[in-house]
Amino acid sequence: MPPFRLIGMLDSPYVRRVAISLHCLGVPFEHEAVSVVSTFAQFQRINPVVKAPTLVCPDGEALMDSSLILQFIEAAHSQGRHLWPTDAQALQHDFRVLSLALAACEKGVQSIYERNLRPADKQHGPWLARVQGQLVAALAGLEHAVASRPEALAPSQGQPTRQAGITAAIAWRFVGEVEPALAQAAQHPALAALAAQMESTEAFRRFPPVGPGVNPPAA
C-alpha cells in the first residue's frame, strides 16, 4: 500500500507540525506542497473541503485537522512511539502549552487573512486589534508556560520528543513571520530559546516553513 500523503504548504504551522511530528514518530509519508490559495483547484481535487493539512491514508480516505491527524497516527501507526508524557500532571502542562501555541497560530492566521485577503477598504480595524490583542496574550501565556519547565520541552539528544515543544517552536516562528512586531525575543526569551533549539534539529531543518503563504488578491 502507498504511504500516507500529507497535503499542504509547510508555511502553514499546522501542516509543518504534522510533518515534523510524523518524522519524529518514524511514520513514512509523502509531502505534497499544494496551496489552499494559489492552487485551490488542485487541492479541491484531493479534498473537496480544501483544508490544510489533509492526510490521505493508504486506502484513500482523507483526514483533516492537525491535532486529530496526530492523535490518529499515535493511536494506530506510531509503533508505540509517542510525543506526550505519561505522567498526568506533566500531560496537563503539555496540553496547556499546546493550547496556547495553537491559539497563537489561529490568531496569526486570522491576522493574515484580514490584512492580505480582505480588500483594504473592507478591513475592520477594531477586529484586527482584537485579534492582535489575543495573539499578544497567547504569546505571553506561552512564554510563561515554557519558562516554567524549559528542559522538559527542549529536544533530547538532538531530537524533538514532546508535541508541546514542537508546536510551541513552530508557533513562535510562524508568528514572528506574520506579526514580527508582536514576537520580540527580548520579551519572550524562553520561547525564543526553545524555538532556536528546535529549529537546529534535523527534523525541523528537514521541513522548513517555505511556501507562497497567503497571497493578496489580484488587483
Major β-sheet profile: 4 strands, mixed
Q: Please count the beta strands (DSSP E, at least 2 residues each).
A: 4
Give the CATH class of the largest domain: Mainly Alpha
Number of helices: 9
Mean pLDDT: 92
Write down the domain tally: 2
* Pattern of helices and strands: EHEHEEHHHHHHH
What is the strand arrangement across the widest sheet? 2-1-3-4
- Helical content class: 40-55%
CATH-defined architecture of the largest domain: Up-down Bundle
Structural class: alpha+beta
Radius of gyration: 17 Å
CATH topology of the largest domain: Glutathione S-transferase Yfyf (Class Pi), Chain A, domain 2
The rounded distance between the terminal residues' Cα atoms is 45 Å
The stretches of 5 or more residues where confidence is low (pLDDT under 50) are 213-219
Q: Into which percentage range does the β-strand content fall?
A: 5-15%
For this structure, the quaternary state is single chain
